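Render this sequence as a predicted structure.
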Amino acid sequence: MTPESEQAQSSQNRVALVFMLLAVIAVVWLFSSLYKESKPPAPHTSDDQRELTPLLMAPLLLSKPEFSEPPLPLPATGASWSYFTGEAAEPFEFVTRSGTVNYWIKIVNTYSDQMVMTFFIRNGERTEVKVPLGTYEVRYATGQTWYGRTHLFGPTTSYHRADDTFHFDGRHSWQIQLYAQINGNLRTEEIKPEEF
């Protein structure tokens, strides 16, 4: 090859390389513009629509997970857990009526809000527990199916608190009948689970 033909060949190679490079750039541009066109356009939302979106999604965000704990056998009436030290000598009796619900009772120190004792009563039964001297509030949860001390009666648990306090000074004992009565003297109120 002569130097002129080599120079011509080199010039042709550069032109071919430039055309190939332009072809590659064109193909990339073509594919990128096709990709942009294939994506659905973003919906136009007005300010009013943006404000409604969280409200429409609220039920999804606020829904609770499904309760899936297995039911457990009912504890025996009087099965109790104490959370105090010292002597418990004062009797405190609880009576339920047959055909009603089961009870998980919590006895709480009125002044410190410290739990003193918890225990179970099956419907239609009675039990007596011993408490130390002091003044107490009675809270109770009710239901049919037992899921343990953490879940109590599951999502259908009802929570209550007696309006009165019960003072034990070594001279008094108390009996609470946990069912509605004509002219009954103990009032109760329904409370939230977190108040229990």
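Summary. The chain has two domains: 1-40, 80-195. Residues 63 and 125 are 37 Å apart (CA to CA).
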